[in-house]
Structures are given as structure tokens and as C-alpha cells.
Amino acid sequence: MTKADLFKQKINGQNITVIGIGISNLPLIKYLTSAGANVTARDAHDAQWLGDNYKACEELGVKTILGDGYLDNITDNIIFKTPGMRYDIPQLAEAAERGAQITSEMETFFELCPSHIIAVTGSDGKTTTTTLIHEMLKRAGYKTWLGGNIGKPLLSEVGDMTESDYAVLELSSFQLHTMKYSPETAVITNLSPNHLDWHKDYDEYIEAKTNIFLHMSRDNKLILNADNDDSMALKSKVRSKLVTFSRKGNGDISLKDGAIVYNGRKILDISDIKIPGMHNVENYMAAIGAVDGLVDDDCIRDVARSFGGVAHRIELVRTLDGVRYYNSSIDSSPNRTINTLNVFDKKVIMIAGGKDKGIPYTDIGEPIADRVKTLILIGATAQKIEDALIATGRSGEVNIIRAATYPEAVRAAHDNAKDGDVVLLSPASTSFDMFRNFEERGNLFKELVNKL
Question: What is the pTM of this model?
């Protein structure tokens, strides 16, 4: 009998609370109810906002508690929290004190998964690196499962996984915050201040990220960015095998004469990489470190020549009247936007702004002055971004426009563009001031652009 079978037996007839009725938890709710659990789903939003997810709960016969007071009077002994909720809020702390088990979909997946697990975290580049690892393994003939903070939650699929499969996961600091398991292979792409509206401080954010390797054995493997000081500061805590990568030539995996080399062995000419930008060269280095010993170099080169990138990451939406429109809604931090701007060889028209994560925007000012000719600002971080540009003393070089809505922003971009221009959505902020997630934001941008 598998661990998943035993888990289903354990929860059959149990009263379980699931907090959050969103993308990551709806499959969990379905899985728990299919195992015979009595599920109560709680969410701060109302039924209209939850839409189809609420209707799905109704069809499953799940009790729902919504809106103000949705966390009141939790009496169940098993509580699955949404990744974006801290474990130490008063209601959960009180439940833990009386003996309730506080867990999450991802923690339970790690506990039950029979397959090899490769996981990726970091401040930037997680999604692309995770997808590259998945594509390389798939190209090499392995049965792979893509999930975590990307794709779909995998707990409901765990019964179909085998010991020879590979689960490839993108993990956020939220998911890692209380994690007591580590994968066989882990990647930290880089570290920089992020999500400081949620974490108490940068130190806590880094502590959450370290959980991806703290529970590793000596036979496991961690890949770190040798060019990132905050990543390399973790070396003293590493007990597993360590592989480093570096654009500057300081890692086990490095750049030499326009190629990625691993301990002197040429793997890949960077000219073969289809997706643009030196940050993506770093992503390939990290992915190569993760699949070394599993995937031959020909597979890696095949992926590099054919992989066109992930949705919402410098995604060409359309060309209209000689103007190229790119959707990079996944750019949820200043560093991501800086990397994206560096891809283009001309000044762009950029739409930016979103929810404030409490992180500094100082470093984005000069790249905007260098690479943006019209800046259309929207959302809660609009003033922070403009202030960063003003601080450079070069704000007069950029046409700054404020927009209240996305239709207004896209229209302003269109009106200011001429043949040969690039219009870029790169928010440098999360989407949660206006949208459920960055996918919804990017999809609206694409819809508006395609209606022009």
C-alpha cells in the first residue's frame, strides 16, 4: 500500500478545514472530498468573486465560510492553509496550540510523493528554470510532472506517480516558509529583496528559501548562483553536494568563449538559445546543473534551439502597424523588469505598476531612463517607480503617463507608438491590487492588444 493510499485511509471521515478557494487549493479540496473527508472551505472573498471555484465547492457538497470572519471558530484538527497565509496569524496559532495540524498542499505532496523531486526557488528566473528542467527531462524520455507554483497542484496526481518519475516544482518563499522536506535536487536561481510586505524582513525571506535544501542528505544536490552574494552566503549551511554557476566564470558551470561549459566540458553555445537575454543564459546554467547525469548534451541543445519561453514572459502578442506588443506580466519585481528591459536593443514603451510588496525600487530608475521612452504607470507602485526615475535626474528624458485602468494604459501605449516601436507590459510589481494573479493580468493585456 502506498503512502498516498495510507493518507486517504487516514483522512476518510475526518473533518478538515481548507483555507483559500483558489487555483492551488481547489484540486486539493476535490482530492480530500474524494477520499471521504468532510471539508469546510474558507475564503476572505465572496461567492461572486470566487465564481466557478465557489460553484465547484457547491457541487462537491463542501461547506463554505466566506467573507468577514471567515477564520472564526476553526475547530477541525487538520487545517490546510493557502500558500499566501502566514502560519503564525492568531487564528492558526490558536488552532496549533490546541493540537491542530497546520499544513499545506505542497507539504503534504512532499510527504506522499513516490517520485524523484527537483525543485527550484529564487527571487527571479524560477519559472523559466523550472520549465527548462521539465523540458530537458521530457526530451530525454522521462515521465515528468510539472507543478508547485507553476502549472497545477500535484497532490491530486500523486497516486499516478511512480518511483522512476520526476516531479519538477517551482517553489515560492510562501510555500517554503514552513517546509520540513527538501527535494533530491534543488536550485536557488538568485536572492534579492522580495515579498517584504509578507515576510517580517529580508532575513526571514532568505530563511524561507533555505528550507529548499536544509533537509537534504549528503547524496542530494544543490545548485547556487556564484555571482549572487546572498546565495553564496548560504554555503556554510549546505550539507549536500554543491554545484555553482556563473556568468563571470567563477562557477562549476560558466561562460567561456560564448559557450556554457561544465568543469571545462562544452555543453551549449549561447547562440543556440532561442529565448533572448543573458538572464536566460543563467537560467540555462541552473537547469544544466539540475539535470547533469540525467540528460545528455544533445537533449539540452535540442531544447535550447526549440524552446520559445513561457507564457507571460517576454511573450510576443502581436505585431500591429509595425509595432510589436510583448506581454511580460510575470515580471513581478524590479529585478525581473530590469532583466527584461536588457533584452531589447531600443527604447521601449512600457506599462508598469501593481501591488506594493514593500521592496525598494531604487535600482529601476537608471534602466528606465536608459531603455524606456514612454512610461505608462498604473497601480499602487506607480509613484515608487516614478520616484526612482526622478531620483536619477533624467526623468525629463522619459514621457510619463498615468493610467487608471488597463484599457486606458493599452490605449495610451497604442497612441504613442509608431512603426518599429516595442510596447512592453513589464509591471515590476505583483498583480494583486487589481487581479487574482499575473496570468489574469497578462491575459487581459493580450485581450486588449488583440482588440486594437
Answer: 0.85
